[in-house]
Amino acid sequence: MKALLKVMFTLALFFALTFVILKATGLITVEKIKFWLEEAKNTDPLYVAAIIVALLFADLFVAVPTLTVIILGGYFLGPAAGAISAIIGLFFAGICGFGLSAKFGEKLVSFLIKDRDKRDKAMETFQNHGPVVILLSRAVPILPEVSACMAGMTRMPFIKFLLLWLLSTIPYATIASYAGSISTFENPSPALFTAIGLTIFLWSVWFGFHRFVNGK
Predict the structure, then answer these.
(1) Helices assigned H by DSSP within 26-157
(2) What is the largest CA-CA distance in the chain?
(3) Which of 52, 101, 106, 120 has the CB geometry, 3.0–4.6 Å to 149, for a possible disulfide?
């Protein structure tokens, strides 16, 4: 387990570093995202959808406030178009992370874990628990990207990964987009309560899974 956590921590550290850099430079902020979406809506709603898709896809490479982007997508586009845009962006981020890691991830794992037996054990551990990690990954920022990369590194069957990724993504994006669609900047309560509720629910299930694994 320690070897697996080492790999996942390294990936998480990379994504966290991108967040720190963006925060320090101010290249992407919630205020800027709102401004971009407002300007895009005044031009063509399709530009709003394109920005949502691009931001959520970019989350694979730089840490973007995913839930905030999805909620704003629902606010500017409505529940259906907002959810579809979010699902498309997250879909491409997931398969890209899986594909890149399947092709290049083995080198990283070999670099971090020199011992072959420990490396095989780490991969086996993720193969056993990876599906649940992917399903519950939205509980923690950065974990979705890490889980997608780990699925690629451990050679999880692509169809299996895709199904798990969509099962994790579609309800999350749909609920968050709907919350955004019934919220306003003057009354953001639905979006705030939804964000809190989603986090608490996913954390509760994650905690239950952790207790179950440790109790074995």
Answers:
(1) 30-43, 45-58, 66-77, 79-112, 116-135, 143-153
(2) 58
(3) 101
155, 152, 137, 167: which is closest to 66 by C-alpha?
137
Separation of alpha carbons 17 and 41, rounded Å: 31
Single-letter code of the amino acid located at 146: V
Structure tokens at 60: 């694979």
Name the one residue in this structure whose structure tokens are 């974990």.
143
**CA-to-CA distance for 108 and 159, rounded, in angstroms?**
24
Q: Which amino acid is at 190?
A: P
Tens digit of each residue's pLDDT (9 = 90 or more) over 51-92:
999 999 988 888 788 888 999 999 999 999 999 999 999 999
pLDDT of residue 33: 87
Per-residue model confidence as pLDDT tens digits over 194-208: 777 777 777 676 666
pLDDT of residue 31: 84
Provide the terminal-to-terminal Cα distance of the chain, rounded to the nearest Å.
14
Written as six digits, the tokens of 57 are: 């896809």
Percent of the chain whose predicted confidence (pLDDT) is above 90:
29
C-alpha distance from residue 86 to each of 3, 62, 157, 175, 186 (Å)? 33, 16, 24, 11, 23
Which tokens hold the place of 155? 């050679």
| Domain range list for the chain | 2-207
